[in-house]
Write a structure and sequence with these properties.
Layout lengths: L3 E8 L2 E8 L3 H21 L5 H45 L1
Antiparallel strand pairs: 1-2
Helix pairs in contact: 1-2
């Protein structure tokens, strides 16, 4: 079992201490940095007021990007499968 370590994060002028497995510390820090960048983008847009709303809009933007990425990966996987099927068909005609 991995050891949990405290990780200090500073987001929207607040400090958070999050416990996470030691081997996931770097990923947590990268995630927090990504969130801070998204929060800053929303804040700079000037269209959102409260910190709570900034975080919600940032989270929605991140989820939207993630779902778009997932969809793109699925389309890529489907294309790879189609190409593999075409390749198998072509090879079977050559050898058969």
């Amino acid at each position: 079992m991995s050891k949990s370590v405290p990780v200090n994060l500073h987001i929207l002028a607040k400090d958070y201490v999050i416990a996470c497995p030691e081997e996931k510390r770097d990923t947590l820090l990268a995630s927090a940095q990504f969130l801070k960048e998204k929060v800053q983008q929303v804040r700079e847009s000037g269209k959102v007021g409260s910190n709570e709303r900034i975080v919600v809009i940032s989270a929605l933007n991140i989820i939207h990007e993630y779902l778009h990425y997932q969809d793109s990966q699925q389309q890529l996987n489907n294309e790879i499968i189609r190409l593999e099927e075409k390749l198998e068909l072509a090879l079977s005609k050559i050898s058969g």
